[in-house]
Amino acid sequence: MAAAIPELDSYTDYDSFLVDHFDPNTHANSIIHQSARGELDIATSLSSLSFSIDSLNKQLHEQVTTHYNDLLGQAAGIRELETVLKTVKAGLKTLSTSIERLSFKIKTPFEQIRVYTIQLERLQQTSELLRRVLRFLYLSKRLEMQMPGGDLELTKAALTLSEVDTLLQESNLEGIHVVDNEVKNLESVRIRIVESADRILQEGMDSQNQAQVGSALQVFYSLKTLDLKIVAITSLLSNKLHLQIKQAIDIQSLQKEAKESGMGGSTGFVGGGVRRNNGEPSVGAAALWTSILWKRMEKLMDEMYNGCAKVYLLEQVLVRKRDPLTQISFLEIASNNMDGNMVHRFWQALSAHLEQELKTATRSSQFLQQAFVDGFPRLLNLLHEFFSRVSVHTSSTTTSEDFQSPEVVLMLRSVAVFENAYKTKTAQRSSQR
Predict the structure, then answer these.
(1) Could you give the C-alpha distances from 62 to 18, 98, 250, in angstroms and in order?
(2) Are 201 and 213 in contact (CB under 8 A)?
(3) In degrees to the nearest 10, what's the CA dihedral of 420, 426, 427, 429?
(4) Which of 20, 128, 158, 401 lies at a CB distance of 3.0 to 4.6 Å from 219, suitable for a disulfide?
């Protein structure tokens, strides 16, 4: 019987029942549709299913009978396994309880420490902010007390204002009303300090007072604008001399002054207003024009000397003044934005302006061309006197035959064209004799 069952069972199709996600309703509907199409008989299908069920029951019974002892042993093992599982479950429950108790002991203090840490950080931030606000208000009050002190307290006020600027840069105090209101007043204070420093600096340079110049420069250094101020001062002096050079040899201005001088003379109108085309003087007025021209050149040399004296004074004070911490001189700090030596750059600009304006003026005026060529010895003498006066402020500006400073070379080069023309003209006169 046991051998017959597998043989009969081999004719049964179990594949359709072994597919994944087997659905009995879908299987039954498939049989019904096949029966409706005449492909399969429902009775035959039911008989086949009944036979297959009986066959499987018999096979199960045979397996149970054959392996009875093994099944009993496995059943006993399952009971033992259940006992072990109960023990494991009890252990896991105990472990879970311990973990919860340990979590309560650790997590709760951790959360408290975290909250306290956040509170402490915020308290420290608030304390630091309040400390900076108090420092700001203290500096503002001190600045308010220093401002009525005039020029004597100006450097201290500038230093206090610098501390306020540093404090505002390092701290974000925006939105604090007491600070915002005070910041608005600081701008007007800054303007007053800068204007006072400008005035003191100008007075000190005009009077050659090193103390005043030093005080003013200290103010600009405290405000961190020293380099910009030095550039502005030297540019202003250079531009002013440029304008004075241009005005000194302006042919239209020269004609106007000659006309006024000629009409006001004791001999009446001496030809000052009579001129040739293109603004050139007449023969009778040439001497008057020449006299006025050289007076203007003498005055120009005075103005050039004053400008150079101011620059040298500025350099001397910048060398003497130093940063109290780094001991770096103010001159080195100011030179960072000047691309080289301040004095040399000033001389370069001065000689360039002088050469440019002389060339432009003499190119458009035959009178000026002849006056500077014929009067070159006088022009050279004026320059030598100018160099001698400037040499008082520096030992480098000399005109000896063995040595000439770079500044002297620059200035002499600006009038070289007249020197060459004068030498040529002198040589021609000598050859004609």
Answers:
(1) 22, 51, 137
(2) yes
(3) 150
(4) 158
